[in-house]
Every structure is written in C-alpha cells, then in structure tokens.
Design brief:
Strand order of the largest sheet: 7-6-5-8-9-12-10-11
CATH superfamily of the largest domain: NAD(P)-binding Rossmann-like Domain
Helix content: 25-40%
Distance between the termini: 35 Å
Number of strands: 12
Largest sheet: 8 strands, parallel
Order of helices and strands: EEEEHEHEHEHEEHEHHEHEH
Shape: globular
Radius of gyration: 18 Å
C-alpha cells in the first residue's frame, strides 16, 4: 500500500504531506513493514523546504500521542507497564514512557520470543520477557498494543479493572487487536472519530461506542475518567506529522 497524508496547520504555519509505504511481510524481514517520508512545504508559495525521515517522525509522534493519552487516562497509581509487540513502535513507546512515567516493572511479549528478548537486551532499563500475552497483561496498569495482529491478542478477561490500554496496531477495518469484551466494557477514546469509524476493525467490528476524541479531553470538553478501564485507539493523524516535522525543521534551522 502507498498512503498519502497531506495536512495544513495554520497555528504552526506548516504545510506537509507524508508518503508511507506498507508491505505486509510474510516472513521476518530486515526491512520495516512501514516506511515513510515527510515533505515540508512553505505555505505561502508551495516551495519544498525540507525532506524528513518520516519513519522516525511516525515512531516518535505516535508514541508521544499515546503518552498524552496515558497521562490523562491512566490510573492514579500505575506501577506495571506491559508492551505487546517488539517492533519499531515498541521501542519508541518504551523510550518516551520510561522517560515520562515511573513504572516499577516493565513487561514485554511478542509472538516470536527472540524479538522480545532482543528488545529486552537493547533498551536501557530492566524488562521482563513474558512467554504469553496473558502473563504479560495480568495485573498491568498500562498496556500498549503495537502488533501486526489481524485477530485479537488482548482479551478483556485478562485486563485489570481500571487499567489503561493504548491500542496502536490493527489499522485496517478487518483487523483486530482487542476482543469485544475488552472494548465494550471500557471507555473508548480515539484520535479521530471519522478515522476510527472507517479504519479501525477494533471499533467497527465490535460496534463499540466512542466516548470522546483525545483532543476533547485535552481541551476539557470531555472528562478523562481515569478511574475506569480506558482504551485509546490510535490510528494517527496527518496533522501530528505536520507539527512534528515543523518542530524538527525549526530546531534544525535554529542550529540546534
């Protein structure tokens, strides 16, 4: 697949488009499934100002949005972080989550245990490699799903009441990471209602009701409800790439 994600932000005076290729690898590959490039234009005349590594921007902005959701929605006393998946997004999420939050324990599970072990040996802090998703999830306060799963790998029966889940994978209308029990018995937040109702199999196939967009919580027009079990379904928005690209370009221009 080749996706094109154009966006304009008047607030940031930025015009971009991201080109992203997605190849579903049948076997483990040294080439990432998603590769991306961001083009930054001058909004006044359309001139190309910069070509940026969209894969890095995608990894970091996605994790940053999950972190914002977690800051707002996680339980008051969150001690155990669980990551399901060991790809690019697992690393970017681990980096920002361990920078911003203090967890006493971090767990990881991946379908191929070797990748989970490689992850645990690559990052800076202690990570417990779990032999099953259920083992990783049981008792976790914050759960991140960053997998290529097409059928559910996280089940409501395993999830601690009051936990917060960032569901980042399953970005197609026929793919799932979460089962019906989990998504229907949680308060569901999304980055974009429109996108979730057309692109997210977890939302579409479960028939779950969307409580709020994350932006509504940030603005204070909808409550966060951290005392409840919460799910943030992240699909990504082009404006996130725009803001991130402009931030990188401005930092580079300033000699930083």
């Amino acid at each position: 697949f080749l996706g094109v994600m154009p966006a304009y932000s008047a607030a940031d005076d930025a015009l971009t488009t991201k080109l992203v290729t997605f190849y579903e690898h049948k076997k483990d590959s040294s080439v990432p499934s998603h590769q991306a490039t961001v083009l930054l234009f001058d909004p006044r005349n359309g001139s190309l100002k910069a070509v940026l590594d969209g894969s890095v921007i995608t990894a970091k902005r996605t994790a940053a949005v999950s972190a914002i959701a977690t800051k707002l929605l996680m339980p008051a006393f969150a001690e155990v972080l669980c990551i399901l998946g060991a790809g690019v997004q697992a690393y970017s999420h681990y980096d920002i989550f361990t920078e911003l939050f203090t967890f006493k324990e971090v767990r990881i599970w991946n379908r191929t245990k070797e990748k989970a072990e490689k992850f645990a040996n690559s990052v800076n802090g202690p990570v417990q490699v779990c032999s099953s998703a259920q083992e990783a999830v049981t008792g976790a306060d914050v759960i991140i799903t960053v997998t290529m799963a097409t059928t559910p790998i996280l089940f409501g029966a395993w999830v601690k009441p009051g936990a917060h889940i960032n569901a980042v994978g399953a970005s197609r209308p026929d793919w799932r990471e979460l089962d019906d029990e989990l998504i229907k018995n949680s308060v569901l937040f999304v980055d974009s209602r429109e996108a979730a109702l057309t692109e997210s199999g977890d939302v579409i196939l479960s028939g779950a009701e969307i409580f709020a967009e994350l932006g509504e919580v940030v603005k204070g027009t909808k409550p966060a409800l951290p005392e409840k079990t919460t799910v943030f379904k992240s699909l990504g928005m082009a404006v996130e790439d725009t803001v991130a690209a402009k931030f990188v370009y401005d930092s580079w221009s300033a000699g930083n």
